[in-house]
Fold this protein.
Amino acid sequence: MTAALAPSVPPSPGLAGRTIAELGERARLSDIYGPDGADVYHDLSAGDTGEVRELVRLVRNRPGPVLDLAAGSGRITLPLLALGRSVTALDLSQDMLLLLTDRLAQAPARLRERCSVVHGDMADFRLGTEFTSVVLGTTSVSLLTPGSRTGLYRSVAEHLAPGGRLLVSCLDRGEGPDEAVTEAIGASGIRYRVHDHWPVGADHRTVTIMPAELPQGPVQVCTGRVGVVGAELLTTELTSAGFTVLERHLLTEPGQRHRVTLIEAETTR
Ligand SMILES: C[S@@+](CC[C@H](N)C(=O)[O-])C[C@H]1O[C@@H](n2cnc3c(N)ncnc32)[C@H](O)[C@@H]1O
């Protein structure tokens, strides 16, 4: 099994790193998908629905069971269940899956009963069943090393039904400085400061999330270091792995810092 999550919290560069240094022992550092970070990630991402709408539109065209890879707290899983599909939600983080399980417990039984939650590694899984759609959203392919991505493509090809589709999103860097600092409001109403440190040409970027207003006492700081997998690289890798790329849907407006592309591919195996 190949774990994409860093075993320890990566150091934050730039302004985020300087802020953490100034906080000293008040900074409570955690991995973005770990026990503390999972709640923050879930809170922040809940309102981000653009990609989910596009994924649901593409899956709707193709009846049959769906595999949601790196499903996390179920931001994509729940809309797929609402489409009336059986969905298998796979993730490496028990903390994220706990959030998903909680959400399923509160969902109507007709949705909950169609969901299988699997603790596993998207780079190496064997589920003993086939899917008409395999979804890997939120540009989470960039959480894997190049070697792990080979395992991902092999595992996906083994689980796609004939004529099935892989829908995978990826991220290219658009305009902007090395470090962008934005303020975002979570579904809970909490305001966060999000640092995205991504110099041009770098092979990874570092995302650091802290409260918008730093409190006097302990300050929770979540950090994730992720690789960079853009549309050209992903297309090349998928082609070498025996996939045919059918469509590339650009999901963001030109001129933005992040260019998200949703790639639709089928296996020629
Ligand atoms: C950016 S979050 C996306 C979660 C969800 N799809 C969403 O849209 O909110 C990335 C997820 O990938 C998971 N992850 C990281 N490495 C993984 C791996 N090797 N296998 C499965 N899941 C992994 C993390 O635990 C996290 O839940």
Residues 14-36+175-227 form a domain with the Carboxypeptidase Inhibitor; Chain A fold (CATH 3.30.1040).
